[in-house]
Design a protein that fits this description.
Strand order of the largest sheet: 4-7-6
Order of helices and strands: EEEHEEHEEH
Radius of gyration: 28 Å
Helix content: 10-25%
CATH architecture of the domain at 51-126: 3-Layer(bab) Sandwich
Number of strands: 7
Largest sheet: 3 strands, mixed
Number of helices: 3
Oligomer: single chain
Strand content: 35-45%
Length: 131
């Protein structure tokens, strides 16, 4: 009867290790590393808008916001201090996620009341009366 050698590779939290064990050798009683259990909760989708694809290069942020107003049938009020440009490639992204992303990369935020969306830098947005 042939004696064989078992070669096993394992990944530990500190890196890779290789272990060789002869069948006649006594197995080590090393306790495997313990990892805390993670609770995985099903996340409710945050974005619910229809999927859109955008390809923009150095587009004026004010023109992009106006395009979203046309696409969504929402009224958009843009603060006079809003300036910037947008360059991005997005494919099959909910329109509300794309809108939020475009605003945030330009240091902007929005507040929506009924069907009116006010776009401004966060400090100015904080001074807008909610109604």
């Amino acid at each position: 009867m042939k004696r064989g050698v078992i070669v096993a590779l394992c990944v530990a939290s500190v890196g890779l290790c290789a272990a060789e064990q002869d069948r006649s050798a006594t197995p080590k009683t090393e306790k495997p590393p313990q990892f805390p259990a993670l609770a995985i909760e099903k996340e409710t989708p945050r974005y619910t808008g229809e999927l859109i694809t955008l390809s923009l290069k150095d587009a004026d942020i004010r023109d992009v916001i106006k395009t979203f107003a046309v696409l969504t049938d929402l009224n958009m009020v843009v603060d006079p201090s809003v300036r910037g440009s947008v360059t991005l490639e997005l494919r099959d992204v909910p329109w509300d996620q794309a809108f939020e992303l475009i605003l945030h990369i330009n240091g902007l935020d929005f507040h929506m009341t009924n069907n009116v969306v006010y776009v401004a830098p966060p400090p100015k947005l904080a001074r807008v009366p909610l109604g």
